[in-house]
Design a protein that fits this description.
- By secondary structure, the protein is mainly α.
- The protein folds into 2 domains: 11-86, Orthogonal Bundle (434 Repressor (Amino-terminal Domain)), CATH 1.10.260; 89-144, no CATH class.
- It has 6 helices and 2 strands, in the order αααααββα.
- A two-stranded antiparallel sheet has the order 1-2.
- α4 (61-71) packs across α5.
Length: 144
Amino acid sequence: MSPIGGESSTPFTDMVREALALKGATLRSVAERAVDPETGKKLQHTTLAKIVNGEGYRHDKWIVGAVAAATGREPSEVRRAAAAEWVGLTADDILGASTPEVSVVVAYKPGTRPEELTLVKEALKKLDLEDATIRVLGESDQEP
């Protein structure tokens, strides 16, 4: 199951479910760890229950930080999962243009093919990166 929207349409919810599936985990015990490091806000066990049960809850930025803390996952991974689930977009280096010095991340709908990213290609050209190889990460051996 992909944490950034590949196989699952609910990658953020899946992260919470995985934390609750651990031996001895309860809604309350996971909620104890669910504190956003930036704001100090604590996610209540009732909100965790809403997330797990697919009920409505506020999609606030601090909730992403709290879930990252509760699950022990990298905040960037949890942000990508939340974006995929809440907005229906995946954020990744679909272009394969990142280097150790520069990260190139594009938000796109799952299933997008690199040749459909004409505006991104134009932006790369303006940055003198027109020779960048464009490929979709995480999809099976797709050629540009």
